[in-house]
Design goal:
It contains 18 helices and no strands. The chain is mostly helical.
Length: about 500
């Protein structure tokens, strides 16, 4: 059996594990608050409002990615970061954000015409005004991630989500409609920037150098194109839905996907940010690189798979109960989308792994293939409704997964079979758990009724089943994680003794 230990220098091992732990715990808490606020907003606003805002935010997200120019990732990846490079990245980001915001403001009416929703114009223009301001904290956040300060980043996320969500709920309660979501974006940007500057004492100087910018543009250009494709990969279906079925269909689809995103933000997003910083320091040791990659992927699957499959099994009960009956149409969409759990997890790590090996072009190639497949399959299936569009997304994910894994095997020396072994125990346990919960839903409803008691009982059953199945299928994996936890505890005691 291949070695599964992390096998990295003790200092880096500890930084990686603790950074991921802080990121997951803090981000999970922040996303719990976000989820509760999201429930309130969904009860106060309807699918049409969420659909209009989703279309507007799609356009602005593209502008934001182009404005960042991949510079934050270049800062994270740089093994020896000097102040001239940091200053150059900061001022380039601000300038590009101003240009992108101005372009988005001017193009708003044309985009609204493209999606067939006139209301999008005003929302896009207000979000465009926020773009340069939000860029003020981009390089600060990159430097925090580079220094493994995920605790600070997670706390910022928690504070921003609480403040912006509370402001949005207050605005929605006051009858502001879709503008409550614009208020949420504005408050989130303000809080995030303020806390980023408070958390990092670094203040940008005027050391901007064109030569330094040109030196990283090759890497950055590939990362920008890749990030843009990844974003469109998730959001391009909104354009099809808007043209075929209207803004309400976009809102319904987005809310189903939003809950899956919340799971990703709680577990996978922080782990992915740690992955780039960690793997970048192992570029010269392929064996350690591969073992670390598979450890990160397996640990992420251990938490993510049961959350996704459990959510899918209970979606018909969750949406009417939690969000109200007008969101019941999102349940079948969510049940289909959770089936892409495996590529959902691997997508968060494949990009950082290839970028760490300076293979941004390979990341771009995989993203381009996935985007093209999404366009073709969505165009074919969009006439058949929301569930068919969700099925197109899942089918695309599995058709292109082997290409992604082959790129990892070729450029990062990560064997596909070892990644499969890392993911197999939690995947089998999660699928078994979901089937058990799904079959038990009917008898539980008959005995307990369709309410919170039934949902709580189903969750408890799912947790019990998953624990038992992991003990059956994943005992070696659990032993390995326990050994890592003991080693971290021992490292902490040794550090305390030296103080």
């Amino acid at each position: 059996m291949a070695e599964t230990g992390l096998s990295v220098p003790d200092g880096l091992k500890r930084k990686t594990a603790l950074a991921m732990l802080w990121s997951v715990l803090r981000s999970a808490w922040a996303n719990l608050a976000t989820f509760l606020l999201f429930i309130l907003l969904a009860r106060l606003l309807g699918p049409a409002e969420f659909g209009i805002f989703a279309l507007a935010s799609l356009f602005l997200e593209g502008a934001r990615i182009m404005a960042s120019a991949g510079l934050p990732d270049a800062v994270i990846r740089e093994q020896e970061l000097d102040e001239t490079l940091a200053d150059t990245a900061f001022w380039a980001t601000i300038g590009l954000a101003a240009l992108a915001g101005a372009a988005a403001f001017a193009a708003a009416p044309f985009y609204a015409q493209l999606v067939g929703q006139e209301e999008v114009t005003a929302v896009v223009r207000w979000l465009a005004v926020l773009l340069p301001f939000s860029a003020l904290g981009t390089i600060h956040a990159a430097r925090l991630a580079r220094d493994f300060r995920q605790k600070s980043l997670a706390l910022q996320s928690m504070a921003a989500s609480l403040a912006s969500g509370s402001a949005a709920v207050a605005a929605a309660w006051a009858g502001w409609g879709i503008w409550a979501l614009v208020v949420q974006s504005a408050v989130s940007s303000a809080v995030t920037v303020a806390l980023a500057w408070a958390s990092l004492r670094w203040r940008p100087g005027f050391g901007f150098r064109w030569a330094r910018l040109r030196g990283i543009l090759g890497f950055s250009a590939s990362m920008v194109a890749t990030q843009l494709l990844w974003m469109l990969l998730v959001r391009v279906q909104d354009l099809f839905l808007a043209r075929w079925h209207g803004a309400e269909a976009v809102g319904t689809y987005r809310v189903a996907w939003r809950l899956i995103e919340l799971i990703g933000q709680s577990v996978l997003a922080p782990a992915g940010s740690v992955a780039l910083a960690t793997l970048s320091r192992m570029q010269t040791d392929p064996a350690r690189f591969a073992r670390t990659y598979n450890r990160l992927v397996g640990a992420a699957g251990l938490v993510t798979f049961p959350l996704l499959f459990g959510f899918g099994a209970l979606a018909p009960q969750i949406f009417p109960l939690v969000f109200s009956e007008r969101w019941a149409g999102a349940a079948p969409v969510a049940m289909v989308l959770v089936l892409m759990a495996v590529p959902f997890v691997t997508n968060f790590f494949a990009g950082p792994a290839l970028a760490a090996m300076n293979r941004a072009q390979s990341v771009l190639g995989v993203a381009a293939l996935q985007f093209a497949a999404t366009l073709v399959l969505t165009a074919l299936l969009v006439p058949y409704g929301l569930v068919a569009v969700a099925a197109a997304y899942v089918l695309r994910a599995y058709l292109t997964l082997p290409v992604q894994q082959l790129a990892l095997a070729r450029h990062a020396h990560v064997p596909m079979i070892e990644t499969a072994r890392a993911l197999a125990p939690p995947l089998l346990a999660a699928v078994g758990m979901a089937l058990g919960v799904w079959m038990a839903a009917g008898p539980l409803i008959a005995r307990l009724g369709e309410g919170w008691t039934m949902l709580g009982a189903a969750v408890a059953l799912g947790a019990t089943l998953y624990t038992g199945l992991m003990l059956l299928f994943g005992r070696p994996m659990l032993r390995d994680l326990a050994a890592l936890a003991r080693s971290l505890k021992s490292d902490r005691k040794d550090e305390d003794a030296l103080r």
